[in-house]
Amino acid sequence: MKRQNGTRTLREDAQTVVDSCGSHLARIAARQITRFVDQKMRKTDLAIEQFTLLAVIASAEDDSLSAIGEAACLDKSTLSRNLRALESKGLVEIAANLRGSRRRLAWLTEAGARKLEEAMPVWRAANAALNRHVDLVVTKKIAGEARRLNRNRSP
Description:
Helix content is about 65%, strand content about 5%. It is mainly alpha-helical. It has a two-stranded antiparallel ribbon. The protein is globular, with a radius of gyration of 20 Å. The protein starts with 9 loop residues before the first helix and ends with a helix.
């Protein structure tokens, strides 16, 4: 039923949100992609978030938590929680910088490097399967634009 002033109903407005909210649609896509890849990665005993965080750490030129968090696009509390889970599995080590600064550092342990190496072929197959359904160029463009959006936001 239309509102008294002739505008759309709340249900119509809500349906517009469901159908056209970029944030909502991106979250749906992210959840579905994560489920798809996690199912394929199950035999590695690593969720895709853990696997990619190991990869970010392994590829990082700067092993500070702030640099790792920025590269992984994770806030401090999410990064800390994810690193603690990897640390409890013996895959990463977290320590204070020995030079006296307040910076904390993270790196892969030998077990972490082995785990990442062992999981790599499974990820390659999972990623190839994903890329048959989801265009990597489009995904990279969306991720890049989202990063720029958050870098350029006002305080």
